[in-house]
């Protein structure tokens, strides 16, 4: 790595962005708020860059555009970026996580039929699946992505092996906008997806809320700001400005419910999420207090690219056999998560920095993840598919 | 048109863009996808390729593909069914060694052209890239032709719109200055020539001025 900050005093002009127009991919989800509002409120302008937002229709297409250079950076599933780094299902590319864009705000929803059988949580679901054996189908949004990992973690915590060779449980990838209709039609028994699509299914009574992702892992990492490592290496100033602008925006988003309301109004537009404004308002302005809702800033805790967050996805990809061997967890996370660049941007934006690069979290099953022993952690789960049978199509 | 080896043994599945996506994407994007998907099928059929199925992008896609065992799946790169296919790529990565063509292909040009034209291909069996490229060439050629036709259509629409503006401006001149139609048209033409503007532009200016000032008593039959 070079030392971009060696003489990077802001006022000298030596940190002028190498590229001022940055092409940024986003998905029509409530957590695209930081990118959209940075552009709408002009926080990008403040740091001498201009965000050119490009709406994407699938994670696969976004990944291809990131790796081909059509996009400079994107709002990507944290797990997808690590999957791409490790070459799971595609060629391996050296990727960068510039910052975390949100915490919480995803949900696991079960069908009305399942709820009618009295099921409200994982343990009750496991009991139902034992009493009424058949094939149960659950949807997520991308094989290596966050929703797949929350869903598998939640099922396994209840004693359900999502990938058991018996195939009693089947996982499918479904675009988030199609989740509610598939649940309604009886094609699926449940799903995990982001807002507003999980909430829409609940509000339209296609399903019932079984768990918010904030209950699976309070303040879990969410979408990350992803880029190619070589882009970051060639455009350190642009990337620093981008992170600083998004830190300003995240602070604004968490500053007041009024700001969240304003963001909901903007996001409702067809150009962005293209969803009902009341639906978005209910996603962005938290009402429930029994679990943590969508969080963007948290005084710089929600935005920091924690190495332990990145490693967690690797441990779960290892647990479910997407990785066939233990990677150098810490080494990969150090390469991918751009902590040094984030620190410079945080100084620029006046955002507090944590003293460590690892954080300690307690997940729904009481397990503590602090990043200190990733190999042991990845091997510690009773339910796993570390060496799955090769599946045929 | 040159007819390359149609590779009749290549079993191709095309993933439609259609109703299953209703309610999530914007209608304009969907319509564009549907058009590209139709163009792709026509192009491949015209060139003698064997499309064994044209499948909707729904939750049953992986099962249908597992039954059909195609060599090649072609999908619109903007389709949200891309992520559904990704599931197959990962689930079969051991047994059948699928290749996602455009992330492992060394020819970046082909990839960029394909992405720009809106096509993505998944090779399901261990096909060699050389056998796939002609199929994609056909698809790309068809897209380009379609694109050109769309461009021509847009051009015609624009001309029609301009025609309307000119007719309305003529009407304004005829009412305001009690001119015959020919005289009004002549006045427009000389105005355009003197100001070095296109006829439609000068007509639009006249209409703009009429909008601003025309609310007065001079306004006759609007």
Quick rundown:
The complex is a heterodimer of chains A (393) and B (222). Chain A is α/β, with parallel strands linked by helices and 393 residues long.
Question: Describe it for me?
Answer:
- The complex is a heterodimer of chains A (393) and B (222).
- Chain A is of the alpha/beta class.
- Chain A has two domains: 10-103 and 221-378, D-Maltodextrin-Binding Protein, domain 2 (3-Layer(aba) Sandwich); 106-216, D-Maltodextrin-Binding Protein, domain 2 (3-Layer(aba) Sandwich).
- Chain A is 40% helix and 15% strand.
- Chain A has helices spanning 33-41, 43-46, 59-68, 78-85, 112-116, 122-131, 146-157, 179-184, 197-203, 213-216, 229-234, 236-255, 257-267, 277-284, 307-319, 329-336, 339-349, 374-378; strands spanning 21-26, 50-55, 73-77, 95-100, 106-111, 136-140, 169-173, 190-194, 207-212, 223-228, 361-362, 368-369.
- In chain A, the strands form three sheets. In chain A, strands 2-1-3-10-4 form a five-stranded mixed beta sheet, sandwiched between helices. In chain A, strands 7-6-8-5-9 form a five-stranded mixed beta sheet, with helices on both faces. In chain A, strands 11-12 form a two-stranded antiparallel ribbon.
- In chain A, helix 7 (146-157) links the parallel strand 6 and strand 7 (169-173).
- Chain A is globular.
- Chain B is α/β, with parallel strands linked by helices.
- Chain B has two domains: 11-152, 3-Layer(aba) Sandwich (D-Maltodextrin-Binding Protein, domain 2), CATH 3.40.190; 154-213, Arc Repressor Mutant, subunit A, CATH 1.10.10.10.
- Chain B is 59% helix and 10% strand.
- Chain B has helices at residues 27-46, 61-68, 82-91, 101-104, 108-117, 129-177, 181-195, 199-213, and strands spanning 11-15, 50-55, 72-76, 99-100, 119-123.
- In chain B, strands 2-1-3-5-4 form a five-stranded mixed beta sheet, sandwiched between helices.
- In chain B, helix 1 packs across helix 6 (129-177), helix 6 (129-177) packs across helix 7 (181-195) and helix 6 (129-177) crosses helix 8.
- The radius of gyration of chain B is 26 Å and the shape is elongated.
